[in-house]
Amino acid sequence: MNTIALAAFGQLPAVQVSAADGAQAVITLYGAHLVSWQSAGGAEHLFCSAKSALDGSRAIRGGVPVVFPQFNERGRGLRHGFARVSDWALVDSGTEVGKDGEAGAAFAVFALEPHDLPPAAAQAWPHDFLLQLRVTVGGDKLAMAFEVHNRGAAPFAFSCALHTYHLVDQVCDARIDGLRDAALAIGDPLDEIFFGVQPRLTLRAGAATLVLEQDGFTDAVVWNPGAANAAALVDLEDDEYQRFVCIEPAVIEPLTLQAGQQWRGNYRITAG
Ligand SMILES: O=P(O)(O)OC[C@H]1O[C@@H](O)[C@H](O)[C@@H](O)[C@@H]1O
Question: Where is the active site (predicted)?
């Protein structure tokens, strides 16, 4: 089986990453945007809106948008930054060796550099950087490793998030453990930043349980637009808000990266 196949997602070029055990992921080059993750049993774990633009005219509504270098409207740049609306390059792919020496998880690595940015975004954020996103799938696990490299001669500051749209049967039944003393139910709407979270959260949604582990990322954002705000979003069907909750490992307060330094954040999801 090929680890990597060229694919299309709507009108967007994409790659499909396949592990020998059947686990799969689809990532568009536009945004290095993970739009589908199926664990080895074939279950899909990510929500993607039926109304999402899939032509590069705006960010994809669903999957895992990469938020960088600005979170939401906390700055003067593009809302949630330029990474999700830039064309990344596939720079590596392959298969990891499993415990028994057999083919294990499959991975693909994507990169974004200043020359990849839309001109206006490059002008507005004139720093020399390299972003890398490594997506690994195998068994019941998804791992995303996000790296920021400062290749310039001066420091720069950034915020970031992996804005993960977890697919659920009914958002009103979903609960998140680990953010508060009691389980967090998803209000209609809910938009909250949790600073300094513990590294392991659990999402319980119907019969499914996802274990969410993050390091490097200090914070987590939980978002669901609820009925009224969903109706106002042009790229979401009115009732689709019931099918996802976003839990986003994040660095909200801008982090300063010195010249020559790099930063890495990991997000691992285990489906149960
Ligand atoms: O519509 P966008 O730009 O994808 O943002 C979606 C949501 O993203 C979340 O991360 C924010 O906390 C919300 O405030 C925001 O509405």
Answer: 163, 248
Q: Which CATH number fits domain 4-271: 3.30.479.10, 2.70.98.10, 3.40.50.300, 2.70.50.60?
A: 2.70.98.10
Any atom of ligand 1 within 6 Å of the Cβ of 219? no
Q: Six-digit token pair at 216?
A: 């490097």
Q: Which token pair is 97?
A: 């060796």
**CA 72 to ligand 1 center in whole angstroms:** 6
pLDDT tens, position by position, 167-183: 999 999 999 999 999 99
C-alpha 234 – ligand 1 centre gap (Å): 13
Token output for 129: 């950087």
- Give the Å distance between the CA of 146 and the centre of ligand 1: 20
Q: What is the DSSP string of 160-200?
A: EEE-EEEE-S-GGG-EEESSSSSPEE--SSEEEEE-S--SE
Q: How far is CA 125 from CA 74, 76, 163, in A?
A: 15, 10, 21
Please answer whether residues 225 and 235 qualify as being in contact, where contact means their C-beta atoms are separated by less than 8 angstroms: no
Query: How many CA atoms, within 13 angstroms, populate the side-chain half-sphere of residue 10?
Result: 22
Residue 157, CA distances (Å) to 102, 126, 138, 144, 270 in order? 42, 12, 34, 22, 31
Domains in the chain: boundaries: 4-271
Gyration radius of the chain over CA positions: 18
Give the per-residue pLDDT at 100: 78
ipTM above 0.90 for this complex: yes
